[in-house]
Amino acid sequence: MIQFPKKKYQVIYADPPWQFGSKKYQDGNRDFDKLEVNHYSTMTIDELKQLPVSDITEKDSICFMWVTDSHLKEGIEVLESWGFKYKTIGFNWIKKYPSGKNCVNFAPWTLKSWEICLIGIKGTMGKYKKVNNIRGLLEEVRIKHSKKPNEARIRIAKLFGDIPKIELFAREIVDGWDCWGNEV
User: Is the pLDDT of residue 26 over 80?
Assistant: First the structure.
């Protein structure tokens, strides 16, 4: 594990490497390998909870955390272990194909076309909001396995302006954001 940051932040943006069941789904003549370990290293819920995120947050801070609906309960538990109180869903990403049609992701119960981003608050963040017109619905093309739409980061930056922000489990360097992750 790479060294955790020491700086303090008001905005935490996280896409944790959740562990999922190891299943293979079949669609017509194609097999879809849904083993997340084939794409990136994952962490257990306990490992995620033990990350010292509360040590890098200011007393007034917000966390935007991506989670699938199958991990909603665990997502809220991780938020709380990091010192945040769950407030709401910040973004609902409707995944699109380049054609504009909704993606279809296989799941044990119903076909999925979305992913959600939870919001957790520590202290008071309302006084830091710059605008009140940020939409929660993201209808963006799915580009690569688990890569989140850049638009989410853009909207968060518009919402809070130039305050200290970090992306945890980052895969790329983005202007205006510090980043931490083993894929940067």
Answer: no
Q: Which residues are bridge partners to 137 per DSSP?
A: 92
Q: Which residues contact 176 (CB under 8 A, 6 or more apart)?
A: 157, 162, 165
The maximal CA–CA distance of the chain, rounded, in angstroms, is 54
Domain positions in the chain: 10-180
For the chain, what is the radius of gyration of the CA atoms? 16
Whether 183 and 40 have beta carbons less than 8 Å apart is answered as yes
- Domain range 10-180, CATH architecture: 3-Layer(aba) Sandwich (3.40)
| pTM exceeds 0.85 for this model | yes
- 93 phi and psi angles, rounded to 5 deg: -95, 115
H or E segment and range at residue 75 = helix 72-81
Q: How confident is the model at residue 40 (pLDDT cuts 50, 70, 90)?
A: low
